[in-house]
Every structure is written in structure tokens, then in C-alpha cells.
Amino acid sequence: MLDWIVALTLAVVLPPGVSPADLDLAGNIRVTAAPPSRGPASNPSTPCGGCSDPVRETFGVEVKDGDLWVLSFDGTMVHLSSCGVVETISIEGFRGFATGLAWDSRRGVFAVTDALFLKIDLVTTKGIVVGQLSAPDTGFVGIAYDPGRDLYWITNWHFDTIFSVDPNTGRFGPAFHVPEGSRIGGTGYDAARDALIYNGRNEKHTYIISASRGDLLTSFALPVEALDFNNGEDVGVAADGSAWIHLFEPQGTYCFRALSESTPVVGMTWGRLKTIYR
């Protein structure tokens, strides 16, 4: 099993000077020191707003009922409203390496990908694990729930492929080898356009593909700073179609009007986003 994982890792396209030994389970390149935390104002290209990470090593992102939820690798979920911390929840008994967060509206649970134990935990808003599914192979970072098809979409950076998993049976369904991008991360689903969003961390781009055909719809460059080879991570999609993407190096989650334009443009503020749910 270990030889198989190593062989997959060696096949991944990496930036110059980076070896498989430099990667963590999420496919991020390890750095000797974490970059300083920055607030939303540090990146003027961010159109809809942004929130600095409330906890270190944030990976997962989801938008639920107009509020942002983020997930740390150690299984800590943080509920934010207008970037302020509402509550911090530790997933009960979590010992793995969390890489993705999705809200399953049909079952009323979060789906959390664990890259260490190769599983998907189904977790209540109180952090209680009420179910578990096997994840497709190793190398996944990012998960999204598709309510129309009732399935989870999971990004796998080893294969540069987006897999689907049936929440009821754990069986794998449709899968797409992505048309663009490498060492991919993040999965977001936009129901209005039946589209999947993911990030190419080597190219520093976000890509949007059809969830029914897998073909490329549009893409845009991520406005990243300094150490930018790990951006971006998971993706959460708001009701208006805004994509909330975690950027690892600036240590924050930023909003982009990704699907209606070929480049990010001004979307909406947190206040406007909240009115959709009232």
C-alpha cells in the first residue's frame, strides 16, 4: 500500500525544486515558517471580501445559511459571521488530517474528508460523528454536496480527478479527470449553473467545469501574494454563486464572483449575503 501511494505521489506534477517528500497529506508544500496572518484589506484584488483564518492550518470551507464555516486539519470547525467567531467546535474523537468541509442539507450534517484515515466523517453542528464513508484512494482535498444528484464531489490531487460518492451506500459514481490544472485542491458545487469549482495549485488558477459533462466553462487567476504555491484549498459556494476560496499562504478565505464572469468582479458584502437568507 505504501509503495502504491509513493508511486502516485511521484507521478504528480510539482513546481521546480520540490520533491514528494516536501508534501503533506493535502498536497501542500511544507514551509519552514508560517506566513504572517493578514486581514482582508491586505489583498486589494479580493472583490467580495475575506476573512483571516481564526485557527492555524485551515483547509475546509463551506457557506451555510449565509455564514462561513472553516475547518482546520486537526478537526476544529469554526463558525464565522461577518468574520467574527460565533462558535468553535472540535469534532469528537478526531485523530486524522482534515482537508475538506461540505454541508449536506438533506441529512443535516457536515461531510468532512480525512486524508490520513481515508474516510469521510458525517458530523453534526455540535461535532458529533454520526456516520462514516470510505474515501476514494489517497490524495483528496476538498468536498462539496450536490443536492440534486444527492452525492458528494471530492477533489483528488494525486490523479487531478474529481470523484463522486453516494452518501447512502458509499459507492463511487461519476468521475472527471479535470480539463485544466494540476495538483488540484478544493471542490465547490453551484446548483444554479450545475458547475464544479476547483483550484490548480501549480497554476494559481481557479477552474469551473460542468458537473454533467466535465468540460471547462471558465477560469480565473488567483490574486495571491509571496509564497503562493499552495493556493487555493477548499471552496464553498454561497447562494448568489460567489465562491469562497481558502488561500493557504495569506491564511484567509476570500470571495470571488467566479461563475458569472471570466475574471473576478465585485460581488456582494457579508451584509448583502445575509439578506438572501432572511
**Which structural class should the secondary elements be placed in?**
mainly beta
Helix content: under 10%
Q: End-to-end span in angstroms?
A: 50 Å
Kindly estimate the percentage of residues that lie in beta strands according to DSSP.
Answer: 35-45%
The number of helical segments is 2
| Mean pLDDT over the full residue set | 81
What Rg do the Cα atoms give? 17 Å
Main β-sheet description: 4 strands, antiparallel
Q: Give a count of the beta strands, DSSP E runs of length 2 or more.
A: 20
Strand order of the largest sheet: 1-20-19-18
Structure, described:
By secondary structure, the protein is mainly beta. It has two helices and 20 strands. It has helices at 2-11, 270-275, and strands spanning 50-52, 58-64, 67-72, 76-81, 84-90, 98-104, 109-114, 119-123, 129-134, 140-146, 151-156, 161-165, 172-177, 184-190, 195-200, 205-210, 216-221, 235-237, 243-247, 252-256. The strands form five sheets. The protein has a four-stranded antiparallel β-sheet, with no helix packed on it. A hairpin with a 2-residue loop joins strand 4 and strand 5. The longest helix has 10 residues, at 2-11.
Summarize the structure.
This protein has 278 residues and is mainly beta. It has helices spanning 2-11, 270-275, and strands spanning 50-52, 58-64, 67-72, 76-81, 84-90, 98-104, 109-114, 119-123, 129-134, 140-146, 151-156, 161-165, 172-177, 184-190, 195-200, 205-210, 216-221, 235-237, 243-247, 252-256.
